[in-house]
User: What shape does this take?
Amino acid sequence: MCMTTPRDLPSNPHTVGEIEGFVSLLMAACDDRKVNDALEKLLSMPDEKRRLFVHNWVTDLVIKNAPKDFTQAIACLQDDAVAEKAYEVIYQCRR
Assistant: This one.
């Protein structure tokens, strides 16, 4: 789940909760207002626009050899259900 390509990542987690980088991304959004604001802006985009933006971002991250856990975490945001849940989580952090 949330993989960029099979060769990019060593394992195939069964849930987003098993992706340490994704969990870390959400924790960072709860701890850092700038990260929260940036993630909220991304997750507030219409689904099609968000998916295209994330796809292009992941492509850039792969080309730049960004850390695989971060790349994988961002790739998760292409999934509409994951993006919706992530938005709920970061919204709760702001309270």
Observations:
- Residues 69 and 90 are 19 Å apart (CA to CA).
- The chain has five helices and no strands.
